[in-house]
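Entry:
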Amino acid sequence: MSRRTYPSKESRTTDRTITWRLNAGSILLAAALIGAVVPAAFAQTAVDRGLDTLEAQLVRDPSSLRNAAEYRQRAIAMNRYDRSITLFERLSKDGRGGANGFLNLALAYIDKVPVSGTLRQALLGRDAITAASRAIAIEPSVVAYFIRGLVNLYYDRALFHRTDKGVADLEKARTLAIATPALPSVRVFVALGDGYWRLNQPQKAREIWREGLTRYPETASLVERLHASDDRVGGIVARALDPNRRVDTTLRELFPDLTLAFKTPQ
């Protein structure tokens, strides 16, 4: 019979030390992970609570462009695009929202465009055009025609050639803007000139930009276009209408106190 051997006292002590160190290491690792995750979870909860508060305000007043703009800025900052779209799709069905309810929905669709793939971008643009059209049917306005016109300018490739429709909408926005000078509408002139440029009408584009600069002196985007050569203007317009660049949807002309969730495109 072979003799059974037992680990020495020193060996058992070493094994217990290794086990203790492994357990201690696991505990420390778990603590580190909890320390990283728990604050993030609390921060996430705080963000959601902030959105919850604004959602409650919008449910009470679905026509508020101001509350909707603030809500969407927070949604952009926290990558809550789908939550924003779902909310405004629901609120657009509330008759109290009127035209503004559909404008808020159109802007929510636009917010998601830069973070989406090419096909999804096209579908979001289509949905934004549809929502803006619903708003126009209820109450034609500078903002509604500007939104629909601007989105149309992005469709100038393949089977989509909607630049002319975009220019037509932006001309209507310009007419309404001239009739209501108290409403800042500089971006109407910028976008309308860009549309004419894409229609290969550079003289008309520069005419629109000059008119805009007369009404809104020292506007950087207008000055840049008017001082640039034709070769450079093409690049400027292409960058402005790049679907991968975020569009400022805060309506900051109406609400200059709003904080943007991103750097304003030039």
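The chain has two domains: 32-139, 141-244.
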